[in-house]
Amino acid sequence: MRKLYEINEDIERCIQNGIDEDTGEFTAFDELSALQMERDAKLEGVALYIKDARAEATAIKAEIDALKKRMEKLIMKADGAEEWLSDNLNGQKFSTPRVECTFRKSDGVELDDEFAEWATMHPDLNLIDVQMKVVPKKSEIKKLLKQGIILEHCRLDVRQNIQVR
Fold it and tell me: What pTM did the predictor assign?
């Protein structure tokens, strides 16, 4: 199968060599038409490949979403069963040849809603981190640039995005 750049080169050659030197008329219409049809078929094939790949990706995503929902349901069921088992064992060890249930002690911190305000009033204790994040508002910047307003370190990038349907 010929590559697109080879077809394009043949089209260029056909255009250059298809002119009658005596009359200046273009005479290679049939050859040019055949090359153009070959080029169109190649482009159509690539576009159809893109459609097919995107459709398959969409189907895979749908399957992933369905499996994710099933997984979440199973995890919720297991968590509920684990809570029931823990409540019924009440800290007591349980063991059979196929399963063993034990308990281990752990510590955790629970904070009231008012903690952040209280900790802010006591900076000497160093109990909180204050984080600041700077995020450019690209939609606002885009509006200003489209209005012709010049902003330093910004430019409007005009793109050509192909749509394959």
Answer: 0.60
